[in-house]
Design goal:
- The protein is α/β, with parallel strands linked by helices.
- The protein has two domains: 134 residues, TPP-binding domain (Rossmann fold, 3-Layer(aba) Sandwich), CATH 3.40.50.1220; 83 residues, 2-Layer Sandwich (SIR2/SIRT2 'Small Domain').
- It has seven helices and nine strands; from the N terminus they run βααααβαββββαβββα.
- The strands form two sheets. The chain has a six-stranded parallel sheet, with helices on both faces. It has a three-stranded antiparallel sheet with strand order 5-4-6, covered by helices on one side.
- It is elongated.
- Bound molecules: nicotinamide-adenine-dinucleotide.
Length: 229
């Protein structure tokens, strides 16, 4: 039996990391156009670097929550995969072994040159600077997929979701594409569950069992459900 969790910003909300939509489309008081698009990097790489440095510092100071740990512990009894839209590493720090990041991982940087996704550079501390260069001498940029950029891990994620027996969506508004389109691949799953306190505002989930709960409450309910199967 393969269980696949698909998580978004809501998964880390109870750890103290702000979600995206709650702030009126602003991300930590910054307009997306200024910090999370390819144009933003071209226009002002220092601002983008500083924005993600502060995100990284915050994430390093943040602990996984009960929901992260419950998912990690489930690996002891069942085959669990985590596909996350999050750039934080809280799933891994809770102990999850099979985690696929769709939108990048804040703990890494990548080249801003032509071979961006060829190699990811693990950062030693939270502070990336303009003097940090890739092997080919280009400035390093945060390993984050900007809005409008392709999602290199999409096909791998679709393959994993296609083989899910149980598919559980947690804390995502399913508004950021192409990632949100991945739920269409879960058509072999016998059980599909969605956990979100604002589930009534999410579309395209008619065939999901819905828990209008927070991640820490809803994940435990979902896991109890799995254990009954
Ligand atoms: N932690 C992170 O790494 C982080 C944080 C913010 C944004 N992002 C990026 O922004 C994009 C935003 O899309 P998204 O759909 O993930 O986020 P979103 O902000 O669009 O949606 C978050 C969802 O989480 C729900 N939510 C709020 N509190 C919750 C809780 N305690 N438990 C469960 N659910 C809760 C909200 O109702 C909402 O539906 C992502 O693709 C991601 O890359 C990442």
């Amino acid at each position: 039996m393969k269980v696949v969790f698909f998580s978004g910003a809501g998964m880390s909300a109870e750890s103290g990391i702000g979600t995206f939509r709650d702030k009126g489309g602003l991300w930590e008081n910054h307009r997306i156009e200024d910090v999370a698009t390819p144009e933003a990097w071209k226009r002002n790489p220092d601002l983008v670097t500083e924005f993600y440095n502060l995100r990284r510092k915050k994430i390093i100071e943040t602990e996984p929550n009960k929901a992260h740990f419950a998912i990690a512990q489930l690996e002891n009894i069942i085959d669990v995969h985590v596909i996350t839209q999050n750039i934080d590493d809280l799933h891994e720090r809770a102990g999850s072994k099979k985690v696929l990041h769709l939108h990048g991982n804040i703990k890494y940087a990548k080249s801003s040159g032509p071979n961006q996704d060829k190699k990811y550079y693990l950062l030693k501390n939270w502070n990336l600077t303009k003097h940090d260069l890739c092997d080919e001498g280009y400035r390093l940029r945060p390993h984050v997929v900007s809005f409008g950029e392709s999602v290199p891990a999409f096909d791998e994620a679709a393959e994993i979701i296609k083989n899910a027996d149980i598919f559980i969506v947690i804390g995502t508004s399913l508004q950021v594409y192409p990632a949100a389109g991945l739920i269409q691949y879960a058509n072999n799953a016998k059980t599909k569950i969605l956990v979100d306190p604002n589930a009534n505002s999410i579309n395209g989930i008619d065939d999901f069992k819905v828990y209008s709960n927070t991640a820490t409450e809803g994940v435990l309910l979902a896991i109890n459900e799995i254990k009954k199967i």
